[in-house]
Structure prediction request, 345 residues.
Amino acid sequence: MSETTVATFGEIMLRLTPPGFERLLQSPVLQATWGGGEANVAVSVAQFGGKSRYITVLPENNPVADACVAELRRFGVDIQHIARGTGRLGIYFLENGANQRPSKVVYDRAGSAISLARPGSIDWRTVLAGTGWLHVTGITPAISESAAAITMEGLESAKARGAITSVDLNFRKNLWKWGKAAHEVMPQVLEHADLCIANEEDCQKCLNIKSHADIESGKLDQDAYRELCEAVLQQYPKLQRIAITLRESKSASHNGWSACMHNRKTFAISRHYEVTHIVDRVGGGDSFAGGLIYGLQHFASDEEALEFAVAASCLKHSIPGDFNRFTTEEVLALVKGSGSGRVQR
Prediction:
């Protein structure tokens, strides 16, 4: 694939996190950053040296939203097509887990500007001008019926102009509250995708496609994931590729990490990483998606793109915050085997 500007569409929120691994309000301090699946992907692509554009709806006349836009601009993301509307900026609280205590997310996003935006409020012909790729996730269709409709408008417009489209299923059970379940909406969304990114739970909850893989055992069955990829590709004949992230959750602090991808011709599984001290896993999947999109545009083979994406995501687990902060050179160093953590002088 040739390089093109990657547009992403979705909701960005203020992220509030206790210091270190404290519980929420254990001390009267919360660290404020930004986060949102599609924004995280746009930042990753820009960090790697690619061109990215972020599309969303933020509240008008709001200094906190202005600060959010400034932060995206600082990372090199094109923010000129961010719309403003009524509503508020969503917030999410993250309590980082450790050892056997899982991480915990609390959403406070009802009434956000993007959830209240109506179909037709985004001029997709204008905002997609000069782009060749649109990336969305299953998070946006989950927040409201109108957000689901706008997501479909974007995908249909992107396909009409010949752009590549990618969908990260990103099932979030706590968000599907507006009347329809994920499996009633996401199949229609995926009908407009060239690339699907998922894990085994996403496939089951969003597509009603079950995997024989045991996600609780901590061990991975490669044949089961090949069968899962083939089942999705068979059910969605317009899909060109499906990538599935493979997380072995041994504890909140220790995960095995790898991924597989099927392009209808070959099935590839990446190198496996033992992430033995997780600093922050939120945004790890988005770093994978951003790395895969960048890799498919810049590397000669799907296998190289997959290895780059998995390495990028592995590194993301080592830093706090949603955003990836690693360069292409740093990711490639890990791909080539430089994963000892030795001091670089």
In short: The longest strand covers residues 241-249. The mean pLDDT is 94. The two ends are 36 Å apart (CA to CA).
